[in-house]
Amino acid sequence: MIDNLDYPVQLLQPDGARVCRTEYDRLIADLGPTEYISLYRDMVISRRIDTAAVALQRQGEIGLWAPLLGQEAAQVGSARALKPDDFAFVSYREHAVAYCRGVPPEVLTHMWRGCSHSAWDPNQFNVTNPAIVVGSQGLHATGYALGAHLDGAEIATIAYFGDGATSQGDIAEALGFAASFRAGVVFFCQNNQWAISEPVSLQSRTPISHRADGYGIPSFRVDGNDVLAVLAVTRAALAHAREGSGPTFIEAITCRMGPHTTSDDPSRYRSDTDMAEWRRRDPITRMRAFLERRGILDETADAEISTAAEDVAARLRHATLETPDPPPSTLFEHVYTGPHPLIEHEREQHREYLASFDDQEAMS
Ligand SMILES: Cc1ncc(C[n+]2csc(CCOP(=O)(O)OP(=O)(O)O)c2C)c(N)n1
After folding, report:
1. Which of 20, 21, 359, 361 is deepest in the core (most CB within 10 A)?
2. Quick one: which H or E segment has residue 223?
3. Whose CA is closest to atom 5 on ligand 1?
4. Which residues line ligand 1 (CB under 6 A)?
């Protein structure tokens, strides 16, 4: 079942035609019209969350956002393969993974507005908060997977990271450790073609999935803009982890169609012509074409999905604008689990700093 062909696994062509591949078809044989619509719905809603958050950043309501535009199939397909007890360790771009795990859309902007250290309780949804330190979550996922194995829990762990992160020591260490100790972790690399301005061709002289070979980790290459193929491949990898067979590596080939973050201007390093081919492979258009070919998406379902997406965007917007600014002193909370002399010293300095304004007021 492990497939590391250079040609990625594809079950849906860009025009929505279904490609048959028996070994992968059987992994999604349980899907019917309801599930197809539901996958499409999650992708449409995820994209709408993303555009709403970008608009909030442009209006100065959040400090930063890392758009997922173009990566909806990679994220929704893989997240929908997870079982409730599995645990996902994410980077800063996996808003659709968080959404699929049940994180309320209203809290997705919390950290980016600077009003919370932690947007949600990771243990409530079995998905971590965004990790900004590139690659760090690979180590966290590996440790968690090993711990779960020692506890006898039949769960899988998945670590999401980008092509750039494969050049980080953290990912190399995680791969080595997971392979040696057969940790049940799925290394899910979204090869979105860019690490900020650095193209993947410079990042790796081999297909990214081949890097797993050096660690003795079986790998898959999948068309990351094909939600059915991603779902099938991730189900296989997660099953491998749950049955105690150790780690796997998935390279999902996709494209970040927007900027790296809202602070980036991609026109400085890639042309519109470069992006034309990727627009043709848009994951949402592709799934929609598949649904239309099968006559599954009628006007009622289409309208319901659009309304739901607008509703989620409105809730996100409203919640972001309504979130109160926390008192600045909360900066010093939760740095360590208990009191720490350095933090207490800094807290006192901060108190004195604020008090100095009271003195100035009294003098004027
Ligand atoms: C350890 C570390 N080094 C550098 C950075 C700065 N940085 C943030 S994102 C990024 C590129 C990551 O690219 P990739 O892993 O391909 O993920 P993508 O952003 O494309 O999803 C870099 C270098 C960081 N956050 N952490």
Report:
1. 21
2. strand 219-223
3. 134
4. 93, 132-134, 161-165, 192, 194-196, 256, 260
CA 293 to chain centre: 29
Q: Of the residues 113, 260, 281, 288, which is catalytic?
A: 260
Could you give the C-alpha distances from 217 to 180, 195, 213, 233, 249, in angstroms and in order? 10, 23, 6, 15, 7
Sign for the pseudo-dihedral over CA of 304, 81, 199, 15: negative
Closest alpha carbon to 134 in 181, 172, 79: 172
Instruction: Look at the chain and count its residues.
Output: 364
Probe target for ligand 1 pocket from 196, 202, 211, 262, with the most ligand atoms within 8 Å of CB: 196
Mean pLDDT of 127-156: 97
55: buried, middle or exposed (CB in 10 Å: 19+, 13-18, 0-12)? middle
What tokens were used for 121? 């309780």
pLDDT in tens, 230-283: 999 999 999 999 999 999 999 999 999 999 999 999 999 999 888 999 999 999
Q: State in Å: Cα 157 to ligand 1 middle.
A: 21
State the Cα angle at 95 between 296 and 287, rounded to 5°: 20
Query: Predicted confidence band at 1 (pLDDT cuts at 50, 70, 90)?
Result: very low
Type of residue found at 142: T
pLDDT tens profile 221-238: 999 999 999 999 999 999
What does DSSP say about strands 219-223 and 157-162: parallel, antiparallel, or unpaired?
Answer: unpaired
How big is the chain by its Cα radius of gyration, in Å?
22
Q: State yes or no: is 256 an active-site residue.
A: yes
165 alpha carbon – ligand 1 mean position (Å): 6
Which ligand 1 atom minimizes the distance to the CA of 191?
A: 16
Per-residue model confidence as pLDDT tens digits over 170-197: 999 999 999 999 999 999 999 999 999 9
